[in-house]
Amino acid sequence: MDELQDVQLTEIKPLLNDKTGTRNFQDFDCQEHDIETTHGVYPTMDELAEMLPPVLTHLSLKSIIGIGVGAGAYILSRFALSHPELVEGLVLINVDPCAKGWIDWAASKLSGLTTNVVDIILAHHFGQEELQANLDLIQTYRLHIAQDINQENLQLFLGSYNGRRDLEIERPLLGQNDNKSKTLKCSTLLVVGDSSPAVEAVVECNSRLNPVNTTLLKMADCGGLPQVVQPGKLTEAFKYFLQGMGYIPYVQLSHLSTESVPSASMTRLARSRTHSTSSSIGSGESAFSRSVTSNQSDGTQESSESPDVVDRDQTMEVSC
Fold first, then answer.
1. Which listed site, 7, 92, 266, 315, has its alpha carbon 20 to 30 Å from 106?
2. pTM of this prediction?
3. Are residues 212 and 290 in the same domain?
4. Residues 259 and 314 reside in one and the same domain
5. Where is this region: Disordered (predicted)?
6. What percentage of the chain exceeds 70 in pLDDT?
């Protein structure tokens, strides 16, 4: 017991000091208000996006590369539209840039009365075929959603997402200044599984973005959660995405034991957004490794493209 009494608990730094423990503010009428959110009120998607700049300021971050799935992808897109100087790149999985139509809104209201929130979330993430075939994954997420998440908050969050506004992004016209059009100005990688319920929404988003800095990645044999079903392919695609932005000097390929891809070769990923037509890659190899035309019969990689290729304003679409 003597040893326990020697422990100095006061040396642990408190999370909040006395000055910041209570956070109240006063209006001009000298009425004091609590900043806690009113019970039953959830922030809108726009309000959630506007919560990010103070976080970046607190963490002393000048800019970010964001990764978002579903509602998170929408929030990051809204954030990038409002604060383009703070976003260098985005990886958007299953993003939907459109607001819900009246028919969809009415259908969601009706389904909310007849279907529990867990089934609604599962139907949002997984297609009908995946719901019937991948039972283990579905059961895992069903238990996670039902047991690990506050159901009242989840219901409010779902209502906030269903009430989102259209991003109102538009593809800039040929020769038009990007500053005159409302679109994402950062490098953007759109990701969706080929059997995901979000395929149409992601393709619609791709049609609205600037083809010069946008890449659409459709992942074969993959449903609504490519980061879970195909994490290796998505990780490799993300590495090439960062390489195209100039952040990684080389990328280690899984099928090359000790060799790496020189940055001079892989910078064609960034160039391919401008110089490549739409391409389709087989599922046996990585989409981004095949976007760099290579000859690996003798274990080396050589580019068959000339450095100077005529610009084509088409978004590169790859499948893997």
1. 92
2. 0.67
3. yes
4. yes
5. 267-320
6. 59
DSSP letter string over 82-149? H-GGGEEEEEEES---SPPPHHHHHHHHHHHHHS-HHHHHHHHHS-HHHHHH-HHHHHHHHHHHHHSS
Burial-class residue 84 by CB neighbours within 10 Å (0-12, 13-18, 19+): middle
d(CA 183, CA 207): 11
Lowest-confidence range among 83-97, 145-159, 291-305? Answer: 291-305
What tokens appear for 194 in the block? Answer: 């080929």
Tell me the pLDDT tens digit for each residue of 264-297. 333 334 444 434 333 333 333 334 443 333 333 4
Q: pLDDT band for position 59 (50/70/90)?
A: very high
Residue 248's domain spans which residues?
45-99+166-319
Give the residue from 313, 77, 292 showing the smallest Cα distance to 212: 313
User: What does the alpha-carbon distance between residue 188 and residue 318 come to, in Å, rounded to a whole number?
Assistant: 14
* Angle of the 117-125 helix axis to the 151-162 helix axis, nearest 10: 50
Contacts of 167 (CB under 8 A, 6+ apart): 74, 77, 78, 81, 97, 98, 208
- CA dist 187 and 185 (Å) reads 7
In a 10 Å sphere around its CB, with 0-12 CB exposed, 13-18 middle and 19+ buried, how is residue 38 labelled? exposed
For the chain, the domain total comes to 2
**Per-residue model confidence as pLDDT tens digits over 135-174:** 899 999 999 999 999 999 999 999 899 999 999 999 988 7
b/e string for 99-127 if b means 16 or more Cβ within 10 A?
Answer: ebeeeeeeebeeeeeeeebbebbbebbbb
* Residues 265, 300 share a domain: yes
**SS3 at position 176:** coil
Coil, strand or helix: which one is 229?
helix
Angle value at C-alpha 134, between 228 and 149, nearest 5 degrees:
60
